[in-house]
UniProtKB/TrEMBL annotation:
Ranges for domain O-antigen ligase-related: 275-411
Annotated localization: Membrane
Listed InterPro entries: O-antigen_ligase-rel_domated (IPR007016), WaaL-like (IPR051533)
Disordered: annotated segments: 1-25, 44-63
Biased composition range(s): Polar residues: 1-10
An example Gene Ontology CC term for this record: membrane
UniProt keyword annotation of Iron present: no
Protein name: Lipid A core - O-antigen ligase and related enzymes
Keyword annotations of the record: Ligase, Membrane, Transmembrane, Transmembrane helix
Highest taxon of source: Bacteria
Species of the source: Cutibacterium granulosum
GO MF annotation terms: ligase activity
Length: 534
């Protein structure tokens, strides 16, 4: 594109307006033509003036030519163009849907609308709003849509009855939730929004649980309304099953750590911390052993982030152990541990082991193709291993591989391993900024916890809580893209670097370790005798 702008004091004839700046200089002034040095200087000034105008054009073109690569490109344009009242209303409704996803997933099917759980209807509204207000698909969203298409094709090809169709619809709604949340989160500020959404969801779920603890009475939907509910003391809130409630608590605890780190308001930060601490006794009262085991990963993560917490944990552990020994309660504690192991090996553990053996038998019987969605409960009745009446898979991996086959199971397992490996490698090899390091640690901790809590609940794929957790992890991954990390550090500057001293100590120790290994290798090489010259 030709730039026709000229400095003051120079003019061009219309017939010569298409000439280059250097040509105008040579023909426009006799003084400049007689002075090579003066002409060269003025040519440099003209080139400088035109170069000052061109970078903004290049930046503008680059932003719009490669819009999908820039996180929030369209959102920025909408702000610049002074959005209409309808656009502002849609953005507000998007934020409402985003915040309500964890809340309604915890609420589950306590109340239904036209026979459907409210979270399903919310997903439909959410998707429509996203299609109205968002145009760009990031790599994360594209991957989710590819998995959605592959999953739906396999689910329709494999045999499925009424139960299978219901499960496939649950999976479709879950994947659409993931796509909608990743497309909505086009600015780093959405990280604060997703944390507040989980905080609200945990508060809504914890209040009925506290009432269960106080009164000893469960909600009518507890364990599906079975007559054996009086035998159980575990709390479940809205979620029918205590294990699913524990799953929700563990998933929310990870987000609480991010929330109190990025939050500006001190009162909201205290709410994050208080909710996080309250989750521990509720997990004990829910009686989910695997969920409790997964909290070890979260505690280890906190000790890595906060050195003082590590010191406090060591001191408290040693103090507690010493108090147990001095008070003479060591035998009682060992008896309780032995009883827990006996209960696990005699009842729940043996029934689950039988179901896992039946799952392997069903997978082999289907030759790795899969039995079809929702067929596990019917097929397990024909399996050879005794399962003590347990017909639910109690294993997300078994549910996936038995229902949908080796192909889809391997693809999803590979994606999970790739996300874990990429996050851990970036934490180790690079020196990310404080905000990026927080999100990387969150993704790694989530990917370590998910395989454990996937074994906790009786069913996995049909629960909205599972898909909202997956969508939250996908939102965090959205902000680890190379074009989003700079905005991430700007948004949360000064809020994520509380542990810089311990981090510097860790980096110094790691560098000393690497240098020591390299020096030792060099010394061993130089100490070896050279080749004999005869």
């Amino acid at each position: 594109m030709t730039d026709n702008s000229m400095p003051s004091g120079l003019s061009t004839h219309p017939a010569t307006s298409t000439t280059t700046p250097s040509g105008v200089l040579r023909a426009g002034s006799g003084i400049l033509a007689s002075s090579d040095a003066g002409g060269a200087r003025l040519e440099q000034d003209m080139a400088h003036d035109s170069s000052q105008h061109r970078p903004s054009q290049r930046a503008f073109t680059r932003r719009h030519d490669h819009g999908p690569r820039y996180l929030g490109a369209r959102a920025a344009n909408v702000v610049e163009e002074s959005p209409s009242p309808f656009a502002r209303l849609c953005e507000w409704l998007l934020a409402v849907c985003f915040v309500l996803m964890p809340v309604l997933s915890a609420w589950g099917s306590t109340v239904t609308i036209a026979g459907q759980a409210p979270v399903r209807l919310l997903t439909l509204v959410f998707v429509v709003l996203v299609l109205i207000r968002r145009r760009y698909l990031s790599v994360v969203t594209q991957g989710i849509l590819v998995v959605t298409g592959m999953w739906m094709i396999l689910g329709l090809v494999l045999p499925a009855g009424t139960t299978g169709v219901k499960e496939l619809l649950c999976v479709a709604f879950g994947l659409l939730t993931m796509a909608a949340m990743t497309m909505t989160a086009d600015r780093p500020g959405w990280i604060v929004t997703v944390c507040r959404a989980w905080l609200l969801g945990l508060v809504v779920a914890i209040l009925p649980a506290l009432n269960e603890v106080r009164t000893g009475k469960h909600l009518p939907n507890y364990l599906g309304g079975t007559k054996t509910m009086g035998r159980y003391r575990e709390i479940a809130s809205f979620m029918v099953n205590p294990n699913l409630f524990a799953y929700f608590l563990v998933a929310g605890m990870i987000v609480m750590v991010v929330g109190w780190t990025v939050e500006r308001h001190w009162f909201v930060r205290l709410m994050y911390i208080g909710t996080f601490v309250l989750c521990f006794p509720l997990l004990v009262l829910a009686g989910a052993r695997l969920a409790l085991m997964s909290t070890l990963v979260i505690l280890a993560w906190l000790m890595v982030r906060y050195r003082k917490l590590l010191i406090a944990a060591v001191v408290l552990t040693l103090t507690g152990a010493l108090a147990i020994i001095v008070s003479g309660k060591l035998d009682d504690v060992l008896d309780e541990v032995a009883m827990s192991i006996h209960h696990l090996s005699s009842n729940s553990g043996r029934s689950r082991l039988g179901v896992y053996q039946d799952a392997i038998w069903m997978f082999v019987a289907s030759k790795g193709v899969g039995l079809g969605p929702g067929q596990f409960q019917d097929a397990v009745l024909l399996a050879p291993w005794p399962n003590r009446g347990t017909i639910d898979p109690h294993n997300g991996f078994a549910e996936l591989f038995v229902g949908y086959g080796l192909l889809l199971g391997t693809v999803l397992l590979a994606i999970g391993i790739a996300v874990l490996w990429a996050g851990a490698r970036r934490l180790w090899d690079l020196d990310p900024g404080p905000a990026q390091r927080l999100i990387l640690q969150t993704v790694v901790a989530s990917m370590l916890v998910i395989p454990v809590i996937a074994l906790a609940n009786s069913s996995y794929l049909k629960n909205p809580v599972v898909w909202v957790q997956m969508a939250t992890v996908a939102v965090f991954c959205e902000f680890l893209r190379p074009d989003a990390t700079a905005g991430l550090e700007e948004e949360f500057a000064g809020r994520c670097d509380a542990d810089e001293s311990s981090r510097r100590t860790y980096l110094e120790r790691r560098s000393r370790l690497v240098r020591g290994v390299m020096d030792r290798a060099q010394r061993s090489d130089t100490s070896r005798p050279g080749p004999s010259t005869g």
